[in-house]
Write a structure and sequence with these properties.
Rossmann fold, 44% helix, seven-stranded mixed sheet, alpha/beta
Length: 261
Amino acid sequence: MLHLDWSLGHYERTADQLMPVARVVVERAAPAAGERAVDVGCGTGNAALLAADRGARVTGVDPAARLLDVAREEAAARGLDADFALGEAAALPLADGEADVVLSVFGVIFAPDPQAAAAELDRVTAPGGRIVLSAWIPGGGMSDAIRVSREAVARVLELPPGPPPFAWHDREELAGLFGPHGFEVSLEEATIAFTATSARAHLEAESEDHPMAVAGRAVLEQHGENEAVFERMVEVLEAANEDPEGFRVTSRYVVATARRS
């Protein structure tokens, strides 16, 4: 697995796109005033700041220092009580049982070792606490386009086939992951639409802003493959487009809640 530097590009734009999901996750988690909330893979602080706005005492954790700086600036500008610290899902800078609520908006799903991440989330979650995370459901135009790029990068780098990714969207898999730690898991599905003036415009913006796209583009450009892969991705998204007057592709995701049983 390639290490991804999430400070690449301009993730702030992606964070803006994903704000509706952060709202759903925080609503389901319902952090109360005075509760301690932790946002794992907080990025620019979407969920962390929403929780802080509800009166929770918040710590956002992310491996990208630049994104933490963005989150700190936003918290200060809004007068919110939130701290931000370097860390990752399998190594959180928190004491045992420190969190009443653990949030993760498309964050923990990138953990290289899901079992280690689950054990760490268990460690920091207080008795009676809950974990609420979002995860993409595979399939659909966005997923298909991203797979085109990912497979092309693996091919040009001659990477050996890796194990299939953990199915963070699957209730049974999540129950197997969190159940041994004493959690009961429930799941709900939701959707989010990505829009732009055209499929090409969407991909052009992504290639400049999204850390995964920026990293992939650099590899493909080195091997003279970027233009061809880009055009194939445009074709995939145009075929999936739901708006004949512009561009809209709807992606499905789950919100999973794990509560101490």
